[in-house]
Amino acid sequence: MTLPLEGIKVIDFTGVQAGPACTQMLAWFGADVLKIELPGKGDVTRSQLRDIPGKDGLYFTMLNSNKRSLELNTKTPEGKEILTKLLKGADIFVENFAPGSLERMGFGWDQIQAINPRLIYGTIKGFPEDSPYSDLKTYEDIAQCAGGAASTTGLIEGSPLMSAAALGDSNTGMHLLIGLLAALLHREKTGKGQRVYMSMQDAVLNLVRVKIRDQQRLERTGELTEYPQYPHKPFGDTVPRGENASGSGVPGWMMKCKNWKTDPNDYVYVIFQPWGWENVCNVIGKPEWITDPNFATPDARIPHLFDVYNAMEAWTIDKDKHEVVEILRKLEIPCGPVLTTKEILHDESLRANGSIVPVEHKDRGLYYTVGCPPKFSAFTPEIKASPLLGEHNAEVLTELGYSAADIAALKEKGVI
Predict the structure, then answer these.
(1) Were both Cys, which of 130, 188, 220, 331 would link to 279 (CB 3.0–4.6 Å)?
(2) 66 carries a ligand binding annotation
(3) 12, 32, 169, 214: the active-site residue
(4) What are φ and ψ of residue 406, in 5° steps?
(5) Binding site annotation covers 139?
(6) pLDDT of residue 367
(7) Which residues contact 43 (CB under 8 A, 6 or more apart)?
(8) C-beta of residue 254 within 8 angstroms of C-beta of residue 245
């Protein structure tokens, strides 16, 4: 099976989550991804949140599959020489160092462009280059705050809340991936490499565009009719937290199911489409609402949405979430259960379609990881184990022309 990026060489000079998520996807698509790691230590996630003492943590294994690992101290003259040789034969170089770090090391964009004009240089930073916050060290949660996600997430009267989804990290990696693939196509047409700069703030902001939409609507009209406080509470000058409102213009809310007191995830989310209103009224035992002027049309229902939500919850409260879904799906009422991480991990259908994938690791044994999200008709990426630290030292250096004696000397000096 031919993979689309076979023959593409990637130098992965990233750590933690955003960069590795991007380069892992490149590896899944067939690229030869070489992860550069600090000798004796490696990516910090190898030792973070370990579930097996002395073994690579799942944080690392689930973000670095299908790669090769080279230990390399790039602060030494020999290390710089090796990296330079690698860059001359590479197609893509990806880094997420602090601003200015690689320039001081001798591998900034201008310097790398001189080494290999065809090279595509992918860089991840916390903020855009001209941002007043560009010097801030950025983490997932900071990116969610700076990108506008946190201020619109949570209860109306509560504090801003973080999303458990990696909006700042893995999401940034996926945005960079899109940019790198576009740059590869551009190089096919022009023969030239380019720099692809991806900030975590921009990546979060792109996913918060509907809130930017709402900010402009709020400034024009002074209110947002689909938000839960309308029409009972006044709006301020910024988009408020939306609680469990759908945010799509079509009403939706989270409903308790019968085990909610003992199971914090026995909930179902229901969307109330305009064209399915008659079915909604019938199933919740409110057939009179079909013609009632206060409920008959979407606009009429807006001031009474919590009456609708309460009536639906009065119906769901004596059924578990799966029972609710089985009934509503037959009536074509959009709904979905709140699936837990345990349910997802052990879901037979997700395992069957490659969304959850078993991986045999040479050191820690069997573990499960998330498979390739897009499913292709022409190929299926094979998810392989992440590399041990320095597993490919000899292999990579031999490819560069180093002898066994040279490799031993480099190891003695702490270069690898």
Answers:
(1) 331
(2) no
(3) 169
(4) -60, -45
(5) yes
(6) 97
(7) 15, 16, 20, 35, 37, 60, 64
(8) no
* Other beta carbons within 10 Å of 320: 16
Q: Is 309 annotated as a binding residue?
A: no
Is residue 320 annotated as part of the catalytic site, yes or no?
no
Average pLDDT over residues 388-415: 97
Average pLDDT over residues 128-145: 93
217's tokens: 């609507």
Is 259 part of any known ligand binding site? no
For 389, other C-beta atoms within 10 Å of its C-beta total: 20
Long-range pairs of 24-29 with CB within 8 A, sequence gap ≥ 24? 24/63, 24/64, 24/65, 24/66, 24/67, 25/173, 25/174, 25/177, 25/372, 26/92, 26/177, 26/180, 27/65, 27/66, 27/67, 28/65, 28/66, 28/372, 28/381, 28/383, 29/3, 29/4, 29/5, 29/381
User: What is the structure's pLDDT at 383?
Assistant: 97
pLDDT category at 71 given cuts 50, 70, 90 is very high
Instruction: Name the 3-class secondary structure at 227.
Output: coil
Q: Please check if 258 is assigned to a binding site.
A: no
Q: Binding residue per annotation — 73?
A: yes
- What is the spatial distance between Cα 31 and Cα 181, in angstroms, rounded to a whole number? 12
In angstroms, the CA 13 to CA 97 distance is 8
114 is in an annotated binding site: no
CA distances from 28 to 31, 171, 206 (A): 7, 17, 25
Sign of CA dihedral 347, 351, 356, 357: positive
Which residues are CB-neighbours of 400 under 8 A, at least 6 positions away? 82, 85, 86
CB 39 within 8 A of CB 72: yes
DSSP 124-155: EESS-TT-TTTTS---HHHHHHHTTSGGGSS-
Give yes or no for a contact between 344 and 350, defined as CB atoms under 8 angstroms apart: yes
Rounded Cα distance, 164 and 156, in Å: 19
Which residues, including other chains, have CB under 8 Å from residue 78's CB and lie 6 or more apart?
410, 413, 415
Domains assigned to the chain:
9-206+346-413 (3.40.50.10540), 252-256+267-337 (3.30.1540.10)
